[in-house]
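Annotated sample (chain length 357).
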Amino acid sequence: MQELDEMTTIHCLGSGLVGSFVIKKLSEENIEINVVDIEENQELENLDSVNVHVMDALEYCNNTSSENEIFVNMLPGSLGFKATEILISRGKCVVDLSFSEVTPDSYNEKAIQSGAKVLWDVGIAPGFSNMLVAYASRFGEGISNVEIKVGGNPAEKDENWSYMAPFSPKDVIAEYTRPARIIESGKLVTKPALTDIHKIIVSQVGFMEAFLTDGLRSLLETIPADEMAEYTVRWPGHIQRFIDEREAKSLDYKQLLNDWKFDESRNEFTWMEVKVDCNNGEKLIWTIFDKGRDGNSSMARTTGLVTASCVKQWINDPNFIQIGVHPPESLPNYAIANVAQALKDEGVDIDGPAIIL
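Output written by the structure step:
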């Protein structure tokens, strides 16, 4: 087990769209940051206190020597899971943003044995959505119904897919393929992904479509409810085209990686709505909206600000996370309030009840 102090070193694994934003936010603190990626990143190399290591992340995870260090895992999916597995075996402190299909809570016993401390799924959704559901459950004496809708999309439709992936397109394809686990009548059930397609209104942009995806993850086991589901939000027609081409066996997955590549010159937005019916009769609704700022995409901001806030809180409080593997809904109300404030301070619009301490 390691203890943290003011000399904590931060190791950021991955420097993609979200990772680069997190690194820039953390560089505002007076701490040493090591960035590990297989590709060079000139923008990050110009930041004070940031050291960029162009090398294999898994090799790096096996060979760090500092006693006081936090690893921020922003690697894609399966690679990220392997990195967290290594770090757990070494008893390290980890903030995991890799959103791997196999979740790191499967290594909780190993973490307890090694003294590792892991906080996982700390993005906008999963992440901040989980925190809001946890707060609602505490505030409302338990909850009966949860509905989360979330998506990052171009500001306007186009003649193609009306979509560009703010993170790995491979992970988006996996999201569209994996069966959706939800709670119905208090029981865990599995639905085909991309079902229950329905129109919704996003007040800032108009009509969108929502469909079931497997985004609840840890919430399926940590917070009891009668009904719970998460929906991904896209422009109308996007997901039906995906379904039609897949069923016709004409879907070119390699082409999708190019078609869905993020275009930094294009306006975009991230929107999330979290609705919770509480057992005490209260109905809590939060909406989060961002259009990006200062050259940073909305998804990088809304995801990365949650991650950066958790890392900063951990640096300031070595006991912020206990030994073991913990989901975001395990955080106390004060930590959730700090995350919400970090988002607001950066201009992210949050409409809904304040977090009462």
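Annotation: The radius of gyration is 20 Å.
Annotation: The chain has a mean pLDDT of 94.
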